[in-house]
Amino acid sequence: MMKTHAEAKAPHVSFQNYVTPTPNTAAPQQYREAMQQAGVGSLAAPKKRWEDTWKPGPMTMMGMASTLVTVLENENFSSAQQSQALDVFNSAGTNGRMMLVRLAQRQVNDKSALLDTDKNGNTLLHSLHRIATQPLGAGKESLAAEFKKTKPEITNKELLYDIMREAANPGTIVQGSKNTCSIAAIQYMLVKQNPAEYVRIMQRLISEGKVELRGVTLEHVDGIGHKRNRTLEISPGSVERDNANRPSSSRIFQAAVMDFANGIDDYSNKKDRSTTRHKVFRSKSYQGADNSQAQRALMGLFGNFFSLSRNFLELTSFPHPSPMYVSMNWDRRVRRDPDSFHAVVFEKVENGRVYFRNSWRVQAPDGTELQKGPPRRLEDSSTGLESMPILEFQKRFIGYFHDTGASMDYLLGL
User: I need a surface site. Which of 52, 200, 324, 332 has the fewest CB within 10 A?
Assistant: First the structure.
């Protein structure tokens, strides 16, 4: 009988195997074999992947395990949860183990991010465990075949790392070379506020190809009127690798949400364009997502009604409990050109400057005055934080979305 993905893993190894003070070279033969089967060749600092511009610093294998054990004990993880954490640790590569530690250390609502809960009340760790122990496309044969065809093949270990990296530090989320700034901004907001929901969505997408969202939205359908939709599906062709300079997790998520936000229109990740299926504009195609489409994505992912406000003073003069989605006219000389629109995430106003998160994530030394595009300063290259003089930001400001707190299900009588 063929073994399942979980059964085919390395033999059970406890955290004690990793935190033992015995040097690896002098360890008993049984210990060395267990470590090798678990994918631990040495205790050297892990190599960085090319996209790792966020550098938390090297950790030894013993250091990772010891730190993780400390977090699990201090946060009062149940024995079942500790077992789940061990399974994830054993399944992840060296880089993935480091991300698991960083994720465990991240605090969300005064507790470890691993204990953050999704719309169904399950923890982030619960969804991570499913990613680690189930094969890709486990619930959909055709999806499993798509993953198998990728060159080089996308694996559980790769996606596990990508997802944990984004959940541990939302600032690593990028749009790459695609026109998905709106969705990347919303992805950042979701991972910042509720990483467990993001991981749940990703787990279902890569396992079953679709997932039910927290909120329901309306889509216009010719000859029918409006239909309700709360299902996010993998966009055709988005499993295939591209050269957009972003991880596979973000490619899959951003393409899926572009398709959801665009209603009945079809998004192509390869072309980076949406094509309308409206009977009058049958051949019309366009790039990016406008404010109405961003609104649909926000309501689907967060579950509440988001209202668009064009009041700049309201945005900058009052405190906000969470980062705010802002649409801008990046090149204020061409206000009617949709290609000049850009979405960022407003963070704060300080010392006459607006601080915002830009999903382009320019690679330059912190403090660099950026000349390409609007005059602005790079504050933190590891998270994409930039700032702009408040008057300059105001000239380009179009509007921002704020969460009204009103449930979409309630508003639609569901």
Answer: 332
pTM: 0.85
- State mean pLDDT over 255-259: 96
CB distance 93 to 161 below 8 Å? yes
Spatial separation of the C-alpha atoms in residues 66 and 53, rounded to whole Å = 25
In Å, how far are 21, 82, 90, 200, 279 from 129, measured between CA atoms? Answer: 28, 11, 11, 11, 45
**What count of other Cβ atoms lies within 10 Å of the Cβ of residue 267?**
26
- Supply the pLDDT for residue 47: 38
Structure tokens at 311: 């009041």
Q: Report how far Cα 287 is from the mean position of its chain's Cα atoms.
A: 21
Round to whole Å and give the CA distance between 79 and 96.
22
**Closest to 45 measured CA to CA, from 53, 33, 55, 35:** 55
| Residue 95 phi, psi (nearest 5) | -65, -40
Asked if the peptide bond before residue 365 counts as cis, ω within 30 degrees of 0, the response is no
Buried b (16+ CB within 10 A) or exposed e, 338-377: eebbbbbbbbeeeeebbbbbbbbbeeeeeeeebeeebebb
Residue 408, pLDDT > 80, answer no
Span between the terminal Cα atoms of the chain, in Å:
46
In which band, very low, low, confident or very high, does the pLDDT at 354 lie, cut at 50, 70 and 90? very high
Residue 32 clears pLDDT 50, i.e. is over it: no
The full DSSP string for 220-277 is: EETTTEEEEEEEEEPPTT-SS--SSSS-HHHHHHHHHHHHHHTTTSEEETTTTEEE--
Q: What are phi and psi of 230, to 5 degrees?
A: -140, 15
The CA dihedral of 159, 238, 213, 344, to the nearest 10 degrees, is 90
Has residue 39 got a pLDDT over 70? no
What phi, psi does 271 have (nearest 5°)?
Answer: -85, -15
pLDDT at position 8: 44
pLDDT in tens, 312-331: 999 998 888 889 999 999 87
In terms of Cα–Cα distance, which of 315, 314, 311, 335 is closest to 324? 315
Rounded to a whole number of angstroms, the CA Rg of the chain reads 22
